């Protein structure tokens, strides 16, 4: 089974691209272009993910989600964050599942 190690390894590769020659690496090029271009790619990949799901093409969907995850890892790195921050948030929610929903329902009332 493939573990979350792949996310960490990929995040390390992305981190190592900071300051690298943009001509030598896609990640370095994207980081060099800046936040707006990274956000544009995340938006594009999110839309392509939705379209693949609507088409019912499961392989295409997996590939688009991989593109989306990859570009969100670049976004996180650009903000000084990484997959462990998101995994920790998901783990935190595991412990409060159901509670948040009740709280948020109550919050506006
Ligand atoms: N996982 C990926 C990955 N997924 C997608 N892409 C690239 O993301 C780009 C955008 O994909 P699109 O399908 O949107 O293609 P496009 O519309 O032609 O792209 P644009 O030029 O418009 O941005 C393509 O150039 C893909 O090659 C990736 N590029 C790199 N990685 C990983 O990042 C590592 C470091 O990559 P480099 O920085 O290039 O060494 C690699 O070893 C891989 O593990």
Automatic annotation (TrEMBL):
- Give the coiled coil ranges: none
Q: Which CDD domains match?
A: NTP-PPase_HisIE_like
| Catalyses which reaction(s) | 1-(5-phospho-beta-D-ribosyl)-ATP + H2O = 1-(5-phospho-beta-D-ribosyl)-5'-AMP + diphosphate + H(+)
Indicate whether Amino-acid biosynthesis appears among the record's keywords: yes
One Pfam family for this entry, by name?
PRA-PH
**Which SUPFAM superfamilies does the entry mention?**
all-alpha NTP pyrophosphatases
Q: What is this protein called?
A: Phosphoribosyl-ATP pyrophosphatase
């Amino acid at each position: 089974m493939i573990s979350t190690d792949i996310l960490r390894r990929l995040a390390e590769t992305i981190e190592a691209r900071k300051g690298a020659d943009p001509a030598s690496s896609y990640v370095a090029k994207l980081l060099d272009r800046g936040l707006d271009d990274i956000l544009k790619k995340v938006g594009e990949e999110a839309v392509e993910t939705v379209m693949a799901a609507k088409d019912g093409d499961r392989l295409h969907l997996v590939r688009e989600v991989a593109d989306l995850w990859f570009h969100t890892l670049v976004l996180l790195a650009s903000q000084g964050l990484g997959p462990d921050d998101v995994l920790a948030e998901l783990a935190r929610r595991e412990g409060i599942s159901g509670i948040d929903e009740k709280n948020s329902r109550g919050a506006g009332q």
